[in-house]
Amino acid sequence: MIPVPDIVSPRVRLLVSVRDAAEAALARDHGADLIDAKDPDRGALGALLPETVRAIAAASGDRLTSAVAGEPRDAAEASACLAALAGTGVGYLKIAWAPGCDAVGLVLPARLPVIAVLFAEDGPSGADVPALAAAGFSGAMIDTRGKDGRRLTDHLSLTQLAGFAAACRAEGLLSGLAGSLALDDIPALAALGPGYLGFRGGLCARADRTGRLDPERIAEGARRLAAFVPRVEAA
User: Which of 105, 131, 204, 215 is most deeply packed, by most CB within 10 A?
Assistant: First the structure.
């Protein structure tokens, strides 16, 4: 049975991006709340092969799972990317989506939640969220397109990120924040009340996102988030 994503949760949870089944098991055993299938060698949202995603879903046990489906140019390509991974056993899919992108022709998989991932470099804001809800997305996340050392907060202020998270709550959407995050970013970003904080490089040795995950860093991230209780006003 596929674990069902918890769209509204009072606790900020840990998303760990993994590249294979071995990393999925590592993330599962050291406290990841959500195990996210992604190829770090192919940019911000590099999709893995369906068979690799299936293996990751199987190795994740009872943890929630997701898989990135790529960076499509338009709604038609997005539909095809999502369809390619719809039968892999993950709890939901993620797809790159530009603010203001025309959703006409977008076909989302039946009974499988899809998260729109907006890139921080494009200047997304809470004003973009209602259109995402209207298009049928179940959630929205901000990540960084470039993996050049700049972090999420180098592109967007905490005030802007707080507005985005609040808009997601108002629309009943799952929300997430990611983008070269370090463990020390947890207090400031968790206080904004997103559903998830997403990590890859910050949980790898030497902060190299293309390297292997460090189990001690995963456990530390889980511990810090479990200990942090954000105070978020109801939308």
Answer: 204
Task: Report the alpha-carbon distance of residue 193 to residue 41 in Å, rounded.
Answer: 30
* Measured distance CA(206)–CA(199) in Å, rounded: 14
> What pLDDT shows up at residue 159?
97
The predicted-structure confidence for 103-136, as pLDDT tens digits, reads as follows 999 999 999 999 999 999 999 999 999 999 999 9
Catalytic member of 19, 54, 94, 145: 94
Name the active-site residue from 38, 169, 200, 209: 38
Chain mean pLDDT for the chain? 93
- Per DSSP (E only), the strands in the chain are 13-18, 34-37, 64-68, 92-96, 114-119, 139-143, 174-178, 196-199
Check: pTM over 0.85? Answer yes or no. Answer: yes
Q: Angle at the Cα of 95 (from 77 to 149), degrees rounded to 5?
A: 120
**pLDDT in the model for residue 146:** 87
Report which of 27, 24, 1 is spatially closest to residue 13, judged by C-alpha positions. Answer: 27
Angle at which helices 50-59 and 75-85 cross, to 10° = 50
Q: Name the residue among 174, 196, 194, 199 with its Cα closest to residue 184.
A: 199
Q: How far is CA 76 from the centre of its chain?
A: 22
147 part of the active site: no
Is 38 among the catalytic positions?
Answer: yes
Three-state DSSP at 64 gives strand
